[in-house]
Amino acid sequence: MASFEETFTQPKTTVPKKSSGIIGYDVPDGVDIRGRYDPEFSKILTRGALQFVASLQREFRNHIKYAMECRREAKMRYNNGGLPGFDPTTKYIREGEWVCAPVPEAVADRRVEITGPVDRKMVIDALNSRAKVFMADFEDALSPSWENLMRGQINLRDAVNRTITFQDQARNKVYKLNDQTATLFVRPRGWHLPEAHIFIDGEPATGCLVDFGLYFFHNYANFRKAQGQGSGPFFYLPKMEHSREARIWNNVFERAEKWVRIEKGSIRATALIETLPAVFQMNEILYELRDHSVGLNCGRWDYIFSYIKTFQGHPDRVLPDRTQVGMAQHFMRSYSDLLIHTCHKRGVHAMGGMAAHIPIRDDPAANEAALELVRKDKLREVMAGHDGTWVTHPGLVPACMEVFTNNMGNSPNQIHSMKRQDASILDEEDLLQRPRGVCTLECLRLNTRVGIQYLEAWLTGLGCVPLYNFMEEAAAAEISRVQNWQWLKYGAELDGDGLGVKVNLDLFGRVVEEEMARIEREVGKEKFKKGMYKVACKLFTGQCSAPVLDDFMTLDAYNNIVIHHPIGSSRL
């Protein structure tokens, strides 16, 4: 995996047409803000907040670099034929009789959680959705432009302060928070992502430390009063591959608690198990976070993406159509069952996966059929022992809440009632079993269509995109990309629709051409012309056909949304 410094190209630079007086952020020594100056942003990028972020960056940057180097070494092992597995040196942790700190009352009941970007109206709608939790997302559901990141921080500050409103001019309607709202969790970016608009000591800041640091600094006190019942703030932690990465987060939390003089263990976080290596580290991740943990989550779409990425050098592990890789596959069911057993043994929540369906308003029959699939999936989760689940649309909250409530009753969770001891015997063979299924031309087409359209939206500022009755985030585009790459690399045979042909560059080229024409018909010529579909197509197809698989599509695409302004920082 190339480092950001190796892949980052010179960003676009915008020069202000006119300036008067002093323009710029008041920054501490060693900090350089290269994003656009805005008076509202300056209320987030205060000297104190930037000092806090800089202190985190300086204390932990070498630990982060080491963790990323360890990822690269693990990738080399897998590419050379190795398999992930349980670490024999940490067997004592897996077999030990320890538990995490007690779950705070404020987050005991998490039976339905809604996720979404930090867009202002989305924040209001999600908090008002009657879900138990809203996970505000700086990661997969957000295109990390400077504007999106800063406005997202403003929106969360206003939400915590309960001053957030949104005026819809077209509908002449003002949106505001209800008296009762969901509890707010925040998901920062992963360890691998930089923040190229903020430089600290001459290098880009770590994106997740910027997201976490700015939000925590401005909101910890009011959040603990208004939502946390004396605990919090609460977070979701993405994309970890090893417990050493959880250890960094734990140390970040302890450093933050000391900085503002709150009790150790106040900050709580749920770690997403969404990479294949991490499934073998679940006990170890919880152990490192045991004073700050409130569970693990099955990030199943990213998990499928990670399965392909981990086995990119294994021609015997070509994944079938992604639509066939559901929770009925043995390796996926084993992952979910072992997560439940591990969490409940350690006294914390085991959260289920995402329901990405969105209401089909113009077809009631199709909408009801889609809802029935969601209900069945959520029934499987609650019966397996999950304590809650994820949705992306407020319209799914009532149906999912009903399924969990009907099966959990008045209990806020199943931590003590569903130990799933039967899952304790699951081993590497269960977790790595090859998925069964076929490859089809239709999947190649769908992957291409979804990947290009998502990337186009991401390049134009949207990270959460409705496509074909699903609310797609980066994970869907990543699955599309890596599956196309894998099928091209190993010449997958399209045996599922009777074609019997193998995927090659000629076939892929024809599919791309035909799917671009279809996209133009679906979105309309005017939107297609004004959009960035051709740029997205070039980026997406280039990554699908590259000789070496990029670790993340968004690392390469990030260069297209970074805009540096020469007037950003000042020292007043």
UniProtKB/TrEMBL annotation:
Its annotated compartments are: Glyoxysome
Tell me which EC number(s) this protein carries.
Answer: 2.3.3.9
Q: Which PROSITE patterns match?
A: MALATE_SYNTHASE
Write down the superkingdom of origin.
Eukaryota
| InterPro entries per record | Malate_synth_C_sf (IPR044856), Malate_synth_sf (IPR011076), Malate_synthA (IPR006252), Malate_synthase_CS (IPR019830), Malate_synthase_TIM (IPR001465), MS_C (IPR048355), MS_N (IPR048356), MS_N_TIM-barrel_dom (IPR046363)
Reaction(s) this enzyme catalyzes, per UniProt: glyoxylate + acetyl-CoA + H2O = (S)-malate + CoA + H(+)
Malate synthase N-terminal domain ranges (all copies): 29-92
| Keywords in alphabetical order | Glyoxylate bypass, Glyoxysome, Peroxisome, Transferase, Tricarboxylic acid cycle
Q: Taking every annotated instance into account, which residue ranges of this chain make up the domain Malate synthase TIM barrel?
A: 183-433
**Name of the protein this chain belongs to:** Malate synthase
